[in-house]
Amino acid sequence: MAAKKVYFCPNPISMKKVHLREGVNDPNSANLKWLLLVPFIILLSLAATLYRHEHNPPTDTYNKTAKGKEEKGGHAGNKNNIRSYVKVTGNDYDHSRLGGISNLKVSVVNNSDYELEKVRVKLTYIKANGNIWETHYEDFYFVKSNSTLTHDIQDTKRGISVTYSIVSIKSKELGL
What we know:
The protein has one helix spanning 27-55; strands at 6-8, 17-19, 86-90, 94-95, 101-102, 104-110, 116-126, 132-143, 147-153, 161-170. Among the domains are: 23-55; 82-170, Immunoglobulin-like, CATH 2.60.40. Residues 56-74 have low confidence and may be disordered. The longest helix is centred in the N-terminal third of the chain and has 29 residues, at 27-55. With 176 residues, it is α+β, with helices and mostly antiparallel strands. The strands form four sheets. Strands 3-6-9 form a three-stranded antiparallel beta sheet, with no helix packed on it. Strands 8-7-10 form a three-stranded antiparallel beta sheet, with no helix packed on it. Strands 1-2 form a two-stranded antiparallel sheet. It contains one helix and ten strands; from the N terminus they run ββαββββββββ.
């Protein structure tokens, strides 16, 4: 039979015997390991998310307009270039580092001389990893000439950024 190895604590006041494998099956030792490991994993995940967010900032895309251009007949915009007079913009919405967008307001700006019966806007929600989480369509009805129409968009539980684009424009005056 092999002899057990016994080690003594260097502190002469407490002359307690310490076994080589002491603490391996101790439930308090396992709890301590998890107590230290879980916050470390959470902090590491948070640091990775922040690093990724700083190096890949959310990009909000807007349709560009050609302000101040006049077409034949003195009217701003016609059916061939109406998209250059209509744009979509968004506000500085709130987003959570872990995902979720709130207080989003999207506006359609009509810089043409024509009323637009319907403007369909595509909203694409982007996740922290850069992939598309969801696509949503928002319809703006009766956008008057040279005006802006704004909608409050419902909050989401995922996504860290949003891109906007105009999908279609309907106008009786322009024959669209």
